[in-house]
Amino acid sequence: MLLTDYRRQPWQVDRETLTFADLYQHWLQEKGPGLSKPTLAKAKTSYGWCSDLYGVRYMDLRSGAMQRVVDDCPRGYAYEIDVISKMYSQVITVRDLDVPDSDRQPFTPEERKKLWDRRADPRVQVVLIYIFTGWRLMELLNMRPEDIDLEAWTMKGGEKTKSGKNRVVPIWTGIRPFVTRILQEDPGEYFIHRPDGRRWIGPRFHEDFWNPLMEELGMVHTPHEARHTFETMLDNSGVDQKCKDLLMGHKSKDVGTRVYTHKTLNQLREAVERLTK
Q: In the predicted model, is pLDDT for residue 116 greater than 70?
């Protein structure tokens, strides 16, 4: 039976002796080159938290052992290459005490109204662009004018993950005048740039632009909370999960949604146009 199984699908690893550490090194060699630097760094950090499992034969691992080192450890690869036939990581739970609630708060409708009331301020326009496009901080700061199409009204960019890279986000009607003003009246090498025309870096953007403006407005928010606001508004507008994933640059968790559901640019544009001030 084993010989028949092997002939049908030759094993690429020695399943009988493969340890947790062996599997990680195999995964790193096979999957590492295709991962972004932040994702790879997180995986390596997570692996460091699993030191108690390094010498354990992977086929002997069960949910109890995994439960003790559950915090974001890479899992699923052993199932992919047929080392195991059951994913015990699927039955692991995370206790509420182990994972604190997120302290990120979206901009409230009242705060968004306050921003719209001050939309003549170019600084506020940048905040509204963040809120109504959902780009990560550096995704927007790294965007160049040529990444913005004023005829199709789209922005192209993204980083961090395969799903997030080179994604296209339609520009919502309400912020089109802000995007046009920046491109035509305040052009630079980068779409969002410093007053002296130089490129923003994350810490300086926080210190010199975002934080002073939030203090002036009487608000306490980070640029990433603008992204949370975008996702929350999409959800409140009834946008389906696939469109949200594409707009946010997330990988759909549901395999059927990820593989078989296709969305056109017009459908994404319709989803964005559901947003309101």
A: yes
Interacting residues of 60 by C-beta distance below 8 A, sequence separation 6+: none
Give per-residue pLDDT as tens, 219-242.
999 999 999 999 999 999 999 888
Question: What gap in Å lies between CA 120 and CA 228, rounded to an integer?
Answer: 24
Q: Evaluate whether 20 touches 56 at the Cβ level (below 8 Å).
A: yes
Q: How confident is the model at residue 99 (pLDDT cuts 50, 70, 90)?
A: very low
Looking up tokens 């003790």 gives 68
Burial category of 16 from C-beta neighbours within 10 Å (exposed 0-12, middle 13-18, buried 19 and up):
exposed
> Is the model's pTM score more than 0.70?
no
Q: Mean pLDDT over residues 235-264, rounded? A: 73
What is the rounded CA–CA span in Å between residue 149 and residue 176?
11
Paired strand residues for 169: 155
The secondary structure element, H or E, covering residue 75 is: none
User: What pLDDT is stored for residue 172 in this prediction?
Assistant: 96
CA 226/CA 134 separation, integer angstroms: 7
CA separation for the pair 235, 241 (Å, rounded)? 8
Cβ partners under 8 Å of residue 115, min gap 6: 107, 124, 127, 128, 131, 217
153: left (phi over 0), alpha (psi -120 to 50) or beta: left
